[in-house]
Every structure is written in C-alpha cells, then in structure tokens.
Design a protein that fits this description.
By secondary structure, the protein is mainly α. It contains 16 helices and no strands.
Length: about 325
C-alpha cells in the first residue's frame, strides 16, 4: 500500500479533526481512496451504513464516495470551533473540489469522487453548494423568518438529495423539486431535535419572528425552559415539517422500486424524529428526542421486506417477459 503523508496538521488547522482527514502531499491509488471512503461511511453513521444494505451493489461505492465528501465537509464547518480556521479549511477543501474536476486531486475523497463525477456527469455546483452552507455557518447564527431557514436548507440539505438522484440516474427538475421537499423536511426535523445541541454551538434555527409570535425568548432556550409557549412553538414547527415530508412523498413513486426503498428509509427516519418529539410533548430542551432501538429495527425490517418484494417483483417481471418472448417464438417457428 502506498504511504500517504499528510500535511503537518499543526500548520494547517487539520489537527482539530481526525488525522486521516488531512490533505496528503501525494494522492493515493483509486483502490486506496475507495477503501478510505467506504471505511468512513461504515464507521461514522450507523443509519447510512444500514441503508447501504439495501442499495444495488453497483451503486454502493459511489454512495460511499458522496457520503465521505458530505461527512468531511460538514465536520469542517461544524467541528472546528473557530470560524476563521473553518473558513480556511473550507477554502482548502474547495480547492480540492476544483482539482477533482480538473483531474489532479490529492485527497482520497476526491480521488474516489472523480470516478463518480465522471460516470454520472454530476455538475460541480451540487458539491459546491454544500460548502456555501458551511461557510454561512461561520457567520450566520440566527434566522429572522422561516423563508430565511428555507434559504439555508437550499444549500445545506437539498444538494444531498440531488446527488442521490444523480447516482440513481435521475437529473430532471421535477424529481429534484420533490427531493428538495424531503431533504428540507429532514433538515427541519434535525433542527427541532437539536435545539439545545445547536444552541451550544451558538446557533438558533427557530425563526426569530416566530419565537416572538409565540412569546418564546432566547433565555428560555439558554435555561432549558420547556414552557407551554415553547412547546406550542415546537408543535407548530413539527406540523410544518410533516407537511414538507408530505410534499416529497410522490418521489418514491417516480423512481425504481429497488432505489425507492433506500430513499424512503431515510424519509421514515426523519418522520420518526418528529414522532419522538411529539412523544415528549414537544419538550426538547435538555432532553434530546431520539428514536428507540426497537423503532429503528422496525424501520429496517420494513425496508428489508419491501426490498424483498421489490426484488421478487422485478425477477417475476423478467421471468414473465422471457416466457412471453419464448411463447411468441414457438408460435412463429424458427427464424428464417
């Protein structure tokens, strides 16, 4: 295996992240880069790892590559704890993205991603848009209106759905719009689950205008006061997020069933977060709502059953087509 020598982390700021994240001096081989992405995906996010069980084998590595890009991009914006350092690292990451499209990346993620980009003809802006959101995180920590929150989701969440659609072979505006609804809903569910977690990072995603309308103050969040007013505000937000999930539902009917199972699993996970918030009577401060292990297993079991029937239906359809073709050939006799 080729030795990968990383930039000195104390000089570049990468020391605040896992050592393997740093940009190496020399590029790894494609096989090494692909293994890097697969390992990152399998160890950093349990739900993503589970979802890949249901992916067609031909797509798994490409999903690993995209996930690895998203994972490190997010950590550069969220795990540094210093806005100037984050922006500097995001600039380096942007330069690697440019190199990926120019044909000379060094980071394992971009070495692997270059093959994905080439095969699926993914526009560069879909990756770059995510970096816009992570740069915004370093300067914008409050949102006056819900429309402002949606503007943030436009960059922080929706590009991920577009990338998934490209991997699945879809690039039309109709499916992208339906995906946007679902990805925005997932982002909102995460925001409402993590009100206290985000505040610890200095951020509030609840629209300030709506906090005032419901008579909720920032001090309520600081002190973890799950007042009736705060719970009413959260009930309103959960209802709205559920509506965005509803708008995105038609997407699963417009893609191949074998792929719809995987995409639907993520959507159901987001809706389970909303149910967990409801079960706590919307009291999310200092008691982060989580999906129970039994509910996760139920979601996985349901996805597995649906995948089985999707595969069975596909096999049965191919068998019927083959039988029909053979019957026609028997009736017509041997070709001249």
């Amino acid at each position: 295996m080729t030795e990968v020598v990383h930039n000195p982390p104390n000089l570049t700021g990468w020391s605040r992240l896992p050592a393997a994240y740093a940009i190496p001096f020399t590029a790894p081989s494609l096989a090494e880069a692909q293994e890097y992405c697969a390992q990152l995906a399998r160890t950093h996010y349990e739900n993503f790892s589970v979802a890949t069980w249901f992916l067609p084998k031909r797509l798994r590595q490409h999903f690993f590559n995209v996930y690895a890009y998203c994972r490190i991009s997010d950590d550069l914006g969220d795990e540094i704890g210093d806005a100037a350092a984050s922006l500097a690292l995001l600039d380096q990451w942007q330069a690697e993205l440019e190199a990926c499209y120019d044909g000379a990346p060094k980071h394992p993620v971009f070495v692997a991603l270059a093959e994905t980009v080439r095969q699926f003809e993914i526009p560069k802006h879909e990756f770059g848009d995510l970096l816009i959101a992570f740069r915004q995180d370093q300067a914008i920590t409050r949102f006056e209106t819900f429309e402002d929150v949606l503007g943030y989701c436009r960059y922080s969440a929706n590009p991920v759905g577009h990338l998934v659609l490209y991997l699945c072979g879809y690039r039309d505006p109709e499916r992208q719009q339906l995906s946007d609804y679902t990805c925005t809903a997932l982002q909102l569910a995460n925001f409402w689950q993590d009100v206290s977690v985000d505040y610890a990072k200095g951020r509030i995603y609840l629209p300030l205008a709506e906090m005032r309308r419901f008579s909720v103050t920032e001090d309520d969040i600081i002190c973890g006061r799950n007042t009736p007013a705060f719970r009413a505000l959260m009930r309103f937000q959960v209802t709205r997020a559920r509506e965005w999930f509803r708008r995105g539902l038609p997407l699963v009917e417009k893609i191949d069933r074998e792929l719809a199972v995987d995409i639907e699993l993520f959507s159901r996970g987001g809706q389970e977060i909303l149910r967990a918030i409801e079960k706590q009577n919307y009291a999310v401060l200092e008691n982060r709502p989580v999906i129970s292990k039994s509910r996760k297993l139920a979601l996985i079991a349901r996805a597995a059953i649906e995948r089985f029937f999707a595969d069975f239906s596909s096999t049965d359809s191919h068998r019927s087509t083959r039988i029909h073709r053979n019957n026609n050939q028997n009736r017509e006799g041997p070709a001249a």
